[in-house]
Design a protein that fits this description.
Layout: H1 6-31, H2 39-46, H3 61-79, H4 81-85, H5 88-96
Helix pairs in contact: 1-3
Length: 97
């Protein structure tokens, strides 16, 4: 079973490119003191304790980065679904026929 086939490599490359753009935009916005207000700002104002995420992204960019990563992970898992969770008995029956 080959997990890193051509499709998976292309999807991972596209995902990494999109994430680089998201992190680059976040870094640019942070360096120019730009604000990207979103739901995170409103929720953070309601909390009392300070928290520091592993990677600080402005506004909803963190949600967008997770969404992009989860989207491509879903595509890759969907592509390999039969290989990962397929019925092993049906494969042996097809080979015998």
């Amino acid at each position: 079973m080959k997990i890193l086939d051509k499709f998976t490599k292309i999807m991972l490359a596209v995902m990494i490119c999109i994430l680089i753009f998201i992190f680059g935009a976040g870094k640019y916005m942070d360096s120019h003191k730009m604000e990207a207000g979103g739901t995170d700002d409103k929720v953070n104002n309601l909390t009392q304790k300070n928290h520091h995420p592993f990677i600080e992204l402005p506004g909803d960019a963190e949600v967008g980065a997770f969404s992009v990563a989860n989207f491509f992970a879903g595509i890759i898992i969907g592509h390999h679904w039969e290989k990962l969770f397929g019925d092993k008995d049906s494969k042996t029956n097809e080979e015998q026929a």
